[in-house]
Write a structure and sequence with these properties.
mainly alpha, three-stranded mixed sheet, Phage_Mu_Gp48
Length: 199
Amino acid sequence: MAVARTAEQYRRQLCGLLPAGPAWDPELVPEIDLVLTGVAVEFSRIDARAVDLLNEMDPSGVSELVPDWEAVMNLPDPCLGPNPPFEDRRLAVRRRLVEVGGQSRAYFIEIAVSQGYPDATITEHRAPRMGRSRFGSAHFGTWAVQFMWTLNTGGRKRKGRRFGVSYWGERFGTNPGDPLECLIRQPAPAHTVVHINYD
């Protein structure tokens, strides 16, 4: 991660670049130091914005350029609703860029974790069959049970909006409308039935 130089560092650098001679001596001409100090402040501001831009190029640190990333990636996702919270939009940008997809348990757990459920687990249901089931250890059901699975959320940890990760106009102190069900059901295998167990 790049670090911007301070105004004092720029001032010292500019002083070191001054040509030799009495016309450029800060002790003889104090106005030179005032000019260099003013220019150094502006250089430091421009350097800080350049560092911000470098950080925004990577979706893991994106904040100001979320709308631009969304335009490139065909976002916001319809699963997030008509007016998604800023943090969910930023997560969608990150996921869209690095996500490979999949149908494994780990993939669906990762979706739940990205939505604020770090303790998510998946329970796969199996249809009981002779030779695989024991009396008293499994519930008998229909053949369709083998296509059912449950996402256990384990309780939501990400709590509402807060300063530094939200934008102006976003409501503080409440959890957003939950897009978890849509984000899970959209990539789920077509022949399966998903249940979501909110603890």
